[in-house]
Amino acid sequence: MLEKVIENWTSRLDYIQASRGSPMPEIIFKIARKPHRPVKAGTPAGGAEAVTLRDTYLALIRPIIEYGFPVYYCASAASLEKLEKIQLGAARIITGLRRSFPKEIVLFEADLQPLHLRSKNILTNYFNKLSSYGHHNKTSLYFKNWHNNQRLKRNSPFSYAEHLQLPSSLIEPHSLKSCLSPSEGLPRVHFHFNMSAPVTKQDLIPAHLRQLALESINEIPCDAIKIYTDGSRLDERAGSVIYIENSGQNFYFCHRNPDFSSVFKSELTAIKLGLEAIINESDYGELWILSDSRSSLQHLHNWTQVGDKTSISILQNVKLISKHHDVHFQWIPSHVDIFGNEQAGRLAKEGCSLLTTSSPSITYSEHQSKISRQLSKEWKSPPSHHWYAARKPGSFLDLNCDRASKTAISRLASGHTKSLSFFEGRKTFKFCSKCKVQQASAEHILDCLGLSREDLYDSPLLVIDFLRVNNLMDLV
Question: Which reaction does this enzyme catalyse, per its entry (predicted)?
Answer without folding.
Answer: Endonucleolytic cleavage to 5'-phosphomonoester
